[in-house]
Amino acid sequence: MPHSSPIPVGTEPLTMAGPRVHLRAPTDRDAAARMELGYDPTILRAYGVQMAEKAAYTPERAQSWLKEQREACAWMITVAGELIGTVRLHSHVVADRRAQIAIGLLDSERLGQGLGTEALRLVIDHGFDGLGLHRLSLRVLADNNRAIRCYTKLGFVEEGRERQSARVPGGWQDDLIMGLLADDWTAAGQEG
Questions:
Q1: Strand partners, 121
Q2: What is the CATH number of the domain that holds 9?
Q3: pLDDT digit string (tens) for 5-25?
Q4: Which residue, of 14, 54, 60, 78, has the greatest Cβ tally within 10 A?
């Protein structure tokens, strides 16, 4: 079994900026910003969760969330200084030069504006060009059409389906496994 380790980015994630989004390391003030965003029903549905299943978003939950971000190779996605989500690399397999990528926008008013695509593009560039990864992969619920369109636009292709792998309100949902290779990213001219 290949050795899996955290993504080697030093003590702080690299700060990155696109035309509209800024990616930075988590800070103490992010817990309060996350608290303000709370649970958004539109966002929760994309993850297969119903609002009724979630208790109120508490200060303790916000601190726990912040701790999770700090322990991962995570960037806070901000627009005009406001926290709107996170993006992270995880499950790094050094020998295979591969990792998984995950993104979560937390403010439904920011959906559909291309901000997630812009944030992903920055992290994909960093993964392939900065970290020398060969492959990135992700999981997404099969009915999360907005996310699938975003990933496909960036060059991810569906590589598999895990049938009924996610328990969601009202039943089960398939997870799609999608992947992107460094050579495909470069050939498509996605860099930069």
A1: none
A2: 3.40.630.30
A3: 445 444 456 899 999 999 999
A4: 78
